[in-house]
Amino acid sequence: MSNSVQATREEVTAEAPAGIGNLAVGFDLLGQALAAPCDRVTLKVREGSGIEITDVTGVVRELPVDPRRNAATAGVVRMLDDQGAKSGLDVAIHKGIAMGSGMGGSAASAVAGVLAADALFGLALSTSRLLEYALDGEEAATGARHADNVASALCGGVTLVTHRQAGISVQQLPVPPGIFSVLVHPHLVLETRASRAALPTDFPRDVVIRQSANLAGFVVACFNNDMALLRDCLRDVLIEPHRARLITGFDSVKAAALQEGALGCSVSGGGPSVFAWCDGEDGAQRAGKAMSKAFADAGIAADTFVSPASAPGARIAG
Ligand code: HSE
């Protein structure tokens, strides 16, 4: 491609939200955006060439400085290579999302980076292309190209990743009105790489069949606004049994959420955060308090985030 792509603005900031990866029944496929917290990436044109990470602020200060290894910039590097864009860029990253939290922080940074670059150069790339570039960031951070968190961070709401002949695409699922999620983030760190390494590579056939039925039932329940089916299907029989033991207090946190009437409760992404889906905001607040208390009883402080299941995705912030 010729070196014809020029920046159309001096500076762009984009922000992308945290999320709940897997949503219990869609390992690497389902995701839900949270209303908060968010990561923010600012790209600023400067003289010369190359991408330089000049500032990292927020709840994380130590990030790789090599742009090809940083979640916020790995996809930007390839996007600009593909487009023949040669401008020098300074990159400022503000992390609102803790690392190793199971809240999709690497995906949020990756999405914010590629969305900012798309806007800065006026590219108007498709959702699928942005997703592919954001996956470079996810892979740089976690070693795997799972698109569940990236899809919800980019598109918002509840998303299902589908692998089509033309590549990855995102299906937005309707969310039954009044569904709120609560995510409780214990102050523990569990790196996604370690959490993935704890999983077996082979699964018993009956478990795969039950999880497939739960995923299918979950999707039908979302389309039909069927709360009873949702309650029956929002159960992870495939991944949760292997990850629960990595999270101190998980069993009592889950029991506390279900006791408060949650529709379902499981590990968020790779953990250690735990989420529940509830019918109504009050129910989510009550479940969050009970879950947080269960972590406290296990000696672990935690933060609680209540969000509608239909929270928006990434946006240009300035
Ligand atoms: N789907 C991924 C996993 C999300 O569960 O490993 C982690 O960010």
Number of domains: 2
Shape: globular
Poorly predicted tracts of residues = none
Cα distance, first to last residue?
A: 29 Å
Number of helices: 10
**Biggest sheet architecture:** 7 strands, mixed
CATH architecture of the largest domain: 2-Layer Sandwich
What ions, cofactors and ligands are bound? L-homoserine
Classify the fold: give the CATH topology of the largest domain: Ribosomal Protein S5, domain 2
CA radius of gyration is 19 Å
Protein structure class: alpha+beta
Number of strands: 11
- Strand residues, percent: 25-35%
- Average pLDDT figure: 96
Question: Could you explain the architecture of this structure?
Answer:
With 318 residues, this protein is of the alpha+beta class. Helix 1 crosses helix 3 and helix 9 runs antiparallel to helix 10. The protein is globular, with a radius of gyration of 19 Å. Helices cover 36% and strands 27% of the residues. It folds into 2 domains: 162 residues, Ribosomal Protein S5, domain 2, CATH 3.30.230.10; 130 residues, Alpha-Beta Plaits, CATH 3.30.70.890. It starts with 10 loop residues before the first strand and ends with a strand. The model has no long low-confidence stretch (mean pLDDT 96). Strands 1, 2, 3, 4, 5, 6 and 11 form a 7-stranded mixed sheet that branches. Helix 1 links the parallel strand 3 and strand 4. The longest helix is centred in the last third of the chain and has 20 residues. L-homoserine binds next to helix 4 and helix 5.
